[in-house]
Inverse folding.
């Protein structure tokens, strides 16, 4: 069997970094796809794609900022075509659970004529320590658009384990997995768990969507991110994802990680301890 040579797009991001670490520990040949690597990979610059694909035969695809954004399907179509032309034999695509607008991109990958696995994830736990909620947690005040729908927050450890299995084992070809955590939580409940574990007073409040978007625009948040928040909170968080799946257990033979375990580990890391440093909320 041919040796796997795996390009990890978003290789320094929340799931890509962990996928890379796991594959390296297993002695696999990998290349991190990143604007900061040599060769670089940039979704916005197709001229970088061939260099990143060269010599690889498998790709873990994470798109930025989200497969649902207008125009994403054109980029995915162009990249997938180029990947096949460059000898890629398998694509594992990270998608968002319940994101109907991401379906077109998933279908492009499924129709590429090579092996594929789709991994649809719910909201990551790590949005609270590696993503846009870290700044508010450190500031002691989380403000989000009004939403009482609970979400089965999933841990990137579980996503990375499922992605690695999908990349390495052909039995996952042609499968679509929906990954959730084992428990439904509202954003208010999740914030309260972090508040309790850190012993810090972290307030939670909501704003009507239009006011929230104005607040983001006033803080120079990019328009695409504002569009995405609107889409996620008005469409995807309408209750369609308010259930847990057992796909993690099906693939890994163990239970999905609970939010409380994530909170315990992350609190112990010290990242939620405020310092005087300015906080990058990207
Ligand atoms: N976060 C969630 O809760 C969630 C839930 C379900 C699905 N997803 C999906 O997971 C994917 C990753 O989402 P994430 O927000 O969590 O981000 P992430 O995986 O943490 O990715 C951040 C990385 O994106 C890379 N990046 C940014 N712009 C890029 C560009 N133009 N070209 C190449 N790389 C670029 C950056 O890499 P460099 O700076 O190294 O280039 C950065 O390391 C998205 O498709 C998202 O829809 C996310």
């Amino acid at each position: 069997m041919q040796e796997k040579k795996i390009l990890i797009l978003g290789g320094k991001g929340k799931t890509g970094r962990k996928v890379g670490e796991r594959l390296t520990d297993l002695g696999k040949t990998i290349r991190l796809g990143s604007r900061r690597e040599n060769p670089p990979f940039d979704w916005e610059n197709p001229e970088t794609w061939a260099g990143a694909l060269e010599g690889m035969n498998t790709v873990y695809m994470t798109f930025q900022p989200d497969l649902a954004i207008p125009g994403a399907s054109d980029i995915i179509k162009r990249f997938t075509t180029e990947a096949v032309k460059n000898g890629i034999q398998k694509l594992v695509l990270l998608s968002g659970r319940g994101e109907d607008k991401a379906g077109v991109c998933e279908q492009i990958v499924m129709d590429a004529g090579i092996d594929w696995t789709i991994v649809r994830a719910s909201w990551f736990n790590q949005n609270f320590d590696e993503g846009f909620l870290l700044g508010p947690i450190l500031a002691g005040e989380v403000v989000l658009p009004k939403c009482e729908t609970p979400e089965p927050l999933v841990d990137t450890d579980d996503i990375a384990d499922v992605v690695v299995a999908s990349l390495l084992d052909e039995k996952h070809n042609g499968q679509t997995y929906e990954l959730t955590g084992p428990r439904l939580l509202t954003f208010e409940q999740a914030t309260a768990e972090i508040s309790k574990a850190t012993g810090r007073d972290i307030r939670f409040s909501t704003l009507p969507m239009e006011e929230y978007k104005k607040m983001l625009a006033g803080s120079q948040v990019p328009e695409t991110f504002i569009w995405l928040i609107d889409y996620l909170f008005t469409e995807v968080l309408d209750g369609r994802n308010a259930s847990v799946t057992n796909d993690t257990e099906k693939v890994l033979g163990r239970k999905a990680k609970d939010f409380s375990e994530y909170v315990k580990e992350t609190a112990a890391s010290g990242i939620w301890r405020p310092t005087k440093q300015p906080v990058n909320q990207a």
Notes: The two ends are 41 Å apart (CA to CA).
